Amino acid sequence: MKQYTRTLWQSVLFWTIAMAFFAVFRYYGIFEDSSIKEANGLDINADLRIKVMLFALSGFLMGVIYANIEFGLEKYFSKRFSMGFNIFLSTFLYFLFIVFISTFVRSIANTALGLELNIEFGWWRNSLVFRAAIIYTFIASIVFSFIKIANDKFGKGVFLKMLFGKYREPKEEKRIFMFLDLKSSTTYAEELGHLKYSQLIQDCFLDLNEVVPKYDAEIYQYVGDEAVISWPYKKGLVNNNCVELFFAFTHKLHTKKEYYMKKYGVTPIFKAGLHGGTLMVAEVGIVKKELAYHGDVINTSARIQSECNTYKVSLLISEKLLKNLKIERYLSSKFLGKVLLKGKHNEVSIHTISKV
């Protein structure tokens, strides 16, 4: 619901503004010649406020429809069909709803403003305005999709910061990192073969992606069978997000146990290491531009995760991070000792957290 709500308000805001701008562009741009008339006889240079309101209403309705189509396709169709089919289906649905919304708004304009806009079936075939709106909507949809993809790639709000060059020079940030790794991955790879094993990892990470947005997390990168997840420090602490995500992902895999056993003959189990603190973030690369995090926090998180096998637990967390969490009644922590992690000079106190 949280993910749907965010998608909805972003879509409604974008399309309302986009269609309001379309009204302004038409008013001051293409049809600035007052002698030009629409096919139905309406003066193109009618009151700008009325045009903006009508197109903004269209944009609002389009935003609602767009969000529901995107959310529905992503949730129910993206895993079942190819990207090409999903694009074709979404384009077809967008066209149908644009026709419906345009007809609905024109009927409102006729009733409320006393206009005589054509709303008979097929009116859009000869409407220059509709053709222009379709082209504009197509371009705006590409822009919106680009922003969404970039936002998903870099994390919420990061794309705009990169666009304005915030990370051209390294910046200091306080973040929490989780290194999430598949247990017994070497054994699985040998038993399943590279194709089946690759499909297993793909399925696991698809399930992970359904969990991540619920806990305000960002996936920093995938490295083979490992995922690196990150939070701004405060967001990771809220409601113990950084810990709850691991238990939610574990539960998700458990509920799909039969699916994994039937398809792969195994039930995937992941181990995780958690640590947080201050590190540097910078924009790197030219051909392939991305954000990179540098500092001891990254290295320590990875080293902590590597100790899971030693202590035979699924989740390890540094004492430094644990002290900032609020352990609830249904959670319990256990001190495992101090370890000298590979490559470090100072010992790190580690704990395991489990559900009671």
Automatic annotation (TrEMBL):
Keywords tagged on the record: Lyase, Membrane, Transmembrane, Transmembrane helix
Gene3D superfamilies: Nucleotide cyclase
Highest taxon above the source species: Bacteria
Span of domain Guanylate cyclase: 176-305
EC number assigned by the record: 4.6.1.-
GO molecular function: lyase activity
Stored CDD domains: CHD (cd07302)
Classification via InterPro entries: A/G_cyclase, Nucleotide_cyclase
Leading EC class: lyase
Record field: transmembrane: 12-30, 50-73, 85-108, 128-147
Entry protein name: Adenylate/guanylate cyclase domain-containing protein
Organism: Flavivirga aquimarina
